[in-house]
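stage 2 :: seqdesign
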């Protein structure tokens, strides 16, 4: 089951890469055609951005996530109990011991990052370590271990990077259009039907790309919850942890939309939640708890 899921994630990564690359090139064509009729140059520019931006994002993703979260590495002497939990789960999950980081924030939450199990990090907020007991911390840590061993982090990082490229090129096209693309003579001679298709791509592609990213994120959370219980054999630990996390009204001080999907639960808190359903980064806590109870 585990190895099938890992292989499935790897296949999904390749499929997502192919789909998003085609989408990026399609937007490049749309921008070029819509703003001046030169579709080939638009495709070339999009390809160049794709070739450089995605590898750079992969190389710097872990450092960026940790910096944006304000996380710092801690040692076993700083919190022996947490390190014991992580060490035990590392053996159970069959992955190398990740580095442990702390986010100095009173809101309870956690996340994992790293492109492979050998280079992984698990970060806990101060609020989570203060409010949760050992069993609940183990449930949270097991959830993050599931993301690590199932290569969810690499999949989500790829999604975030490619969505960034789509949005970047679409915004470039919109600016070029409003700054003078409408008056271009070549544009006026273009095929009206292709102009409409190009406009729809420029407007709709960023929304579609973000929708796919969020759908993947929500699905990964359900699978990580189930895998966490497989590791701990204790659904109540994760259930109680999710209940405590969901009761936080404020959310993280430095929460950002770009990294929200990395956390075990929405980092924006109950008061700041503005999205739900298809455009949420996480499935409802109630739904996750219901599934865990059914196990």
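stage 2 :: out
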């Amino acid at each position: 089951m585990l190895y099938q899921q890992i292989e499935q994630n790897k296949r999904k990564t390749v499929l997502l890469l192919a789909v998003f690359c085609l989408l990026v090139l399609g937007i490049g064509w749309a921008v070029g055609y819509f703003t001046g009729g030169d579709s080939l140059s638009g495709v070339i520019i999009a390809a160049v951005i794709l070739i450089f931006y995605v590898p750079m994002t992969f190389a710097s993703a872990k450092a960026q996530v940790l910096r944006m979260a304000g996380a710092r590495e801690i040692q076993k002497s700083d919190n022996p109990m947490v390190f014991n939990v992580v060490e035990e789960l590392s053996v159970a999950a069959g992955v190398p011991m990740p580095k442990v980081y702390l986010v100095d924030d009173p809101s309870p939450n956690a996340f994992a990052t790293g492109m492979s199990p050998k280079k992984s990090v698990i970060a806990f907020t101060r609020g989570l370590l203060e409010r949760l007991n050992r069993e609940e911390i183990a449930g949270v840590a097991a959830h993050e271990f599931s993301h690590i061993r199932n290569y969810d982090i690499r999949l989500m990082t790829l999604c975030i990077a490619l969505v960034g490229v789509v949005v970047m090129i679409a915004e470039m096209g919109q600016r070029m259009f409003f700054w003078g693309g409408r008056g271009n003579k070549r544009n006026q001679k273009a095929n009206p039907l292709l102009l409409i298709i190009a406009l729809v791509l420029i407007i709709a592609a960023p929304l579609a790309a973000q929708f796919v990213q969020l759908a993947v994120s929500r699905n990964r959370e359900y699978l990580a919850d189930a895998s966490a219980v497989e590791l701990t054999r204790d659904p109540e630990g994760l259930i109680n942890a999710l209940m405590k996390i969901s009761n936080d009204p404020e959310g993280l001080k430095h929460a950002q939309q770009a990294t929200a999907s990395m956390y075990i639960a929405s980092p924006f808190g109950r008061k700041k939640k503005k999205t739900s359903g298809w455009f949420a980064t996480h499935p409802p806590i109630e739904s996750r708890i219901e599934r865990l109870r059914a196990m």
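stage 3 :: structure notes
- The chain has eleven helices and four strands.
- The first helix runs from residue 2 to 36.
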